[in-house]
Amino acid sequence: MMQKKPFGEKHIIILGGGTAGWMAASLFDQAWGADGARITLIESAEIDTIGVGEGSTPYLRQFFRTLNIPENEWMPACNATYKCGIRFPGWSGKPGFESYFHPFFSELDQDTGYAFFHNCALRRGGIDVPVNPDRFFVSAQLAAQHKSPVAGDGLRHTPDYGYHFDAGLLGAFLKKRAEARGINHRIDTVERVAQDESGDITALHLKDGGSVDGDLFIDCTGFAALMIQKSLGERFVSYGDVLFNDRAVALASPLNPAEGLPSETVSTALGHGWAWKIPLTTRFGNGYVYSSAHIDESTAEDALRRHLGPAAKGGEARHLKMRVGRVENHWQKNCLAVGLSQGFIEPLEATALMLVQLTIEKFIQMYGEGDYTSRHQPAFNQRINMFFDGIRDYIVTHYKINGRNDSDYWIENRDNPHISDRLAELLAVWDGGGDFETLLDRYGDALIYLRPSWYAILAGMGRFPSHATSAPAKTPIAPMHQIHDLHTEALAYFPDHRDHLARMYPF
Ligand SMILES: Cc1cc2nc3c(=O)[nH]c(=O)nc-3n(C[C@H](O)[C@H](O)[C@H](O)COP(=O)(O)OP(=O)(O)OC[C@H]3O[C@@H](n4cnc5c(N)ncnc54)[C@H](O)[C@@H]3O)c2cc1C
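A: This is the predicted complex of the input protein with flavin-adenine dinucleotide.
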């Protein structure tokens, strides 16, 4: 018996040519192109892409692996650099915790990671032992020395890593590749979305007078959410009560070759939000993410310029609005929302493209197992909401446990009573000396962030009893000198970040 092809002969219409649209086109083509699925991507020449989104989690490595695109092909085209993790200066203010690093961890950190958890347990019990994550994770050490996270031969385990890249160039790279693989590309603006009596979308009517019909419609229209919200009326679940930031101002600045090429994102807390600094091979991307209820555009731009100092001189600022939250159902009728149209959780941990990937991958898997009007739809939506809400809680933690008193913004964030019950429980158990490990296990996958990330944020921001006493004799404390030696030995395998990239491509 012939096996049923999940999408043979059908026509997938992707509306939107931002990063989400081209990622969707690439992944659908990879999964279903050979089965005969036709893919058309429509984008407007009149409506810009958002033009930001330059940091990733390690999950983006999986995207390029799926498409069989090696680093030496896409990285040069996107001025890309490696990312060992994110540094967070200025969030806590507690002595000893002025800055901490959220590492991308791997098996290389196995032993030192356990030492870190162990020390955290002691410190939660009031014993004064080293707990800043920077000292326990190899990625933090790599970033501190401007090293590449890609080791030379000889190391048994290698650290995980993400990337920084020019968002516009990544879109252009994926577009060129998709067109070469036969994806139809139309430039036009959709003026009307036609639906049948059941609510399914049947066609998109274009400004030039034509129309395009299809079987499955992928809404990648960014914050416009043209199909999922404007046509299908999907409810938007705002995260505004826990994530106050709804604006950003972005500004590029030059690299200083004398300073080496950083392999980390830096996310510095400022008066009413935080500023990102992302190194590409050609420039830094910077931006200030803030709350419009607390400051206006020009105050934010001034603050960013002050923060960047002379590097900001002459740089043109771009002001952006953000809609923070998610739709209730990402797959509704014959429409799947992907990217900013489905939701956004502000860029603090650079998770948006990971959600794009997860959404498309899960859809391909569940759709393939089910049918067109699938019984899998509720399970799919529940799963994607779990990803969004899990990430939301981790992002909210940065604000909830901040230690700043320099503005109402930070105090209101700290006093915010609207955090989820799950996050409240995590904080209560951590603070009260309860069984944090069991709680993490109980929530499991729903937390999205794994144990090291939860420890890194709570320990990195100094969430410990204020008084700590010296460790009594015979207390088993993590041997910091051994950890230091282990890192020194491992670090010798990693090249300088700039040298490594320069060997891959001249810049
Ligand atoms: C300040 C900020 C910082 C960010 N930082 C990061 C980060 O570090 N890491 C990360 O992963 N993500 C980040 N993001 C998110 C990231 O930018 C987006 O997830 C990503 O760019 C995908 O956007 P998109 O393709 O969904 O939407 P867009 O880029 O907005 O694209 C929308 C597309 O839809 C088209 N369109 C809209 N309406 C119509 C119409 N009627 N007819 C035809 N076409 C139409 C437009 O022409 C455009 O092509 C950030 C976002 C913001 C706001």
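The mean pLDDT is 94. The first strand starts at residue 11 and ends at 15.
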